Amino acid sequence: MATDDRWGPFEPGKFGTSQKILVERSGGAVKLMKFEAGASFPAHTHPDRTEWIWVVEGRSKPKWRAQSSG
């Protein structure tokens, strides 16, 4: 992972990711995420909340569409 700190510190995540939670409420969360090269996050759902992520490094490819940094 790059050492770019413009977003502040990221917490280590699972499966080769790190995250910074911007907002977390009982109904959901807004996160910044970084994906290491080759990282793969298992498919999952959140039936009780909404999760918005913004990829700032790497690439995420949910089943509905790809998301890249930027």
From TrEMBL:
Pfam families: Cupin_7. Residues 5-60 form the ChrR-like cupin domain. InterPro entries: ChrR-like_cupin_dom (IPR025979), RmlC-like_jellyroll (IPR014710), RmlC_Cupin_sf (IPR011051). Signal peptide: none annotated. This is Cupin 2 conserved barrel domain protein.
